Amino acid sequence: MWNEPLKRKFNLKILLILIIFIISIITISNEVVALSKENPLKKPSTITESEVLVLTTVSEIGFDQYEGAVLSSFGIQYDYEPIGLSTPTLITLQSYSVVFIYISNQPHDSIALGNVLADYLDGGGAAVVSSAAFTADSIWDIEGRFINYAPFVYGPLLNAFRSYDGLSTHPIFNNVSDINSTRVHDLSLAEGAITIASWTNGYPFVAIKDNVIGISSLANTAFWEGDLGKVWANSISYLLSDHTSPTLTNPSDISFNEETTGKSISWIANDPNPGDYFIYKDSVEIENDSWISDDPITISVDGLEIGSYNYTIVVFDESNNTNTDTVIVTVTEATTTTTTTITTTITATSTLDTSDTAETTSKVATSPGFTFLTALSIAIIYLITKKFKKPK
């Protein structure tokens, strides 16, 4: 048998080992959680075949050798679909996130091609479209409902030298410097389109409208030099990325007095890929966490001193798109209420009814509480008398 000191020493060792084990488990768990939150669902740098479809009038061998080789050099993998002898079906297009369109000869059916492309774009598809497709009254243009999506007003294709002006700050022109082309359009923007980059003569070079990026230079590698291929690749990557900010409700400003409790602010954010949120009180971060789409993000505003406070929330999705809202919280001094009591003395003559008094006395005398107290008093008196009673 162990003696008591040895037994206590052994128990302390066991307790110490258990504490170290629990701390280690907690530390490892926290590291795993941190790693799992770091850059979740990061897109691979190489775009897979299932995301990009090339629609072209050029033969597959010819495209792969020239324009396709340029795309591949920037990590863009693609599938090939000829449009010179047939028109792709909507089901075919819907298997891809982006289509890259390069027309150098007459499509099989310009109207049917434009209509099916519009159906695809109606459903959330995206397209990068190079020159020739925007050539007015020609055998190369894409007609049908696609015209409503085109970033440019159609015009003539020119045999003219054009250079990129080098001024764009758009992500599509990251690491893009020199581009020169000899088969171009000088086109006007379509309604609702935005210029991304311009030629040195001021005409739009690259423009975007909704989910379509238009490039006013022929894609044929024989007619350009410089970084045009990088613009193609960057345009495809841009359309594959999430550029939509989370939606966020806008709660009304709050005002209450200093003695009020139970006050809080609740926001609701929505996004297919929610990320983290940060809440600031007067520009000082007071809370951050991950959020769930359509679940309230709530913070208490109890315990504030008299004054005005700005509560600002910033929500991020996984692509670092953001939305923000600010609620002004005003705390006022509690209002003091003065109550005036008016006492009125009424003098009246009354006759005492002895029968009622007798009845009340009878009720008190016969109540259980009265009976118990009476019995208890008798018992105490008896005990005191017995204790101090002198012996005979």
Question: Which helices and strands occur, and which strands form pairs?
Answer:
Blueprint: H1 4-37, E1 52-56, H2 60-65, H3 67-73, E2 79-82, H4 90-93, E3 98-102, H5 110-122, E4 126-129, E5 152-153, E6 157-163, E7 179-185, E8 188-189, E9 194-198, E10 204-209, E11 212-215, E12 224-226, H6 228-240, E13 247-248, E14 254-257, E15 264-270, E16 274-281, E17 284-290, E18 296-300, E19 307-317, E20 322-332, H7 354-365, H8 368-388
Parallel strand pairs: 1-2, 1-3, 3-4, 4-11, 14-20
Antiparallel strand pairs: 5-8, 6-7, 7-12, 9-10, 10-11, 13-15, 15-18, 16-17, 16-19, 19-20
Written overview of the protein:
By secondary structure, the chain is an alpha/beta fold. The radius of gyration is 41 Å and the shape is elongated. It has 2 domains: 49-240, Class I glutamine amidotransferase (GATase) domain (Rossmann fold); 247-332, Sandwich (Immunoglobulin-like), CATH 2.60.40. The protein has helices at 4-37, 60-65, 67-73, 90-93, 110-122, 228-240, 354-365, 368-388; strands spanning 52-56, 79-82, 98-102, 126-129, 152-153, 157-163, 179-185, 188-189, 194-198, 204-209, 212-215, 224-226, 247-248, 254-257, 264-270, 274-281, 284-290, 296-300, 307-317, 322-332. The model is unreliable at 27-49, 344-367 and 387-392 (pLDDT under 50). It is 28% helix and 28% strand.
